[in-house]
């Protein structure tokens, strides 16, 4: 048991060195922070601090949906609004959207991790260039995402030991 503990610490250190949180843990963490990943969704939609309508697992806004180029939108069968609601309430689709938002800002904020870009773009629906705004609130949000992601990674690594 102690050996496993040591080994998981070692793996976390490697993860810190390469400084890259896997997308799946990053998105899972954002989902937890936004809505308890679905558990706190009483209604699918609510309003954010800027009074924008936000929906689904990640509290996605139509503005953010536009910034991920309308993932999964089929113009032949539905309106953008319907596609937005469908995507926001589907974890796979919504997480794909959240992950893609920072892509527009390709060369901005080089040198920070992909997960940090995603988190900073997502905070309060700021959008692709969120990574340029290092307010204490935005940085605080990122550090919560980072911490939670590391916890997810650690649980995953520890679990994996038992199956190898
Ligand atoms: C979710 O609901 C619980 C219990 O009502 C509350 O303590 C928690 O702060 C909520 N989380 C979010 C992200 O709203
Ligand atoms: C959820 O979204 C994914 C990706 O867009 C799609 O492949 C899947 O069919 C959707 N699931 C449902 C139940 O609509």
UniProtKB/TrEMBL annotation:
Cysteine pairings via disulfide bonds: 26-115, 31-37, 45-55, 68-97, 87-93
Keywords: Antimicrobial, Bacteriolytic enzyme, Disulfide bond, Glycosidase, Hydrolase, Signal
Enzyme Commission number(s) from the entry: 3.2.1.17
Gene Ontology BP terms: defense response to bacterium; killing of cells of another organism
UniProt catalytic activity: Hydrolysis of (1->4)-beta-linkages between N-acetylmuramic acid and N-acetyl-D-glucosamine residues in a peptidoglycan and between N-acetyl-D-glucosamine residues in chitodextrins
Entries under InterPro entries matching the protein: Invert_lysozyme
Active site: 34 (proton donor), 48 (nucleophile)
Molecular function as annotated in GO: lysozyme activity
Signal peptide, first to last residue: 1-16
PANTHER family for this protein: DESTABILASE-RELATED, LYSOZYME
Protein name per its UniProtKB record: lysozyme
Organism this protein belongs to: Caenorhabditis angaria
């Amino acid at each position: 048991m102690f050996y496993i503990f040591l080994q998981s610490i070692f793996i976390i250190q490697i993860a810190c060195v390469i400084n890259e949180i896997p997308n799946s843990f990053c998105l899972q963490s954002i989902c937890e922070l936004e809505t308890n990943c679905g558990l706190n969704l009483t209604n699918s939609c609510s309003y954010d601090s800027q009074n924008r309508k936000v929906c689904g697992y990640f509290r996605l806004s139509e503005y953010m949906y536009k910034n991920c180029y309308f993932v999964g939108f089929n113009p032949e069968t539905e309106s953008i609004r319907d596609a937005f609601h469908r995507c926001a309430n589907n974890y796979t689709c919504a997480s794909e959207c959240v992950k893609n938002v920072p892509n527009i800002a390709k060369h901005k904020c080089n040198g920070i991790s992909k997960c940090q870009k995603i988190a900073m773009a997502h905070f309060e629906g700021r959008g692709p260039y969120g990574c340029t705004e290092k307010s204490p609130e935005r940085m605080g949000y990122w550090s919560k995402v980072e911490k939670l992601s590391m916890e997810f990674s650690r649980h995953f690594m520890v679990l994996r030991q038992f199956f190898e």
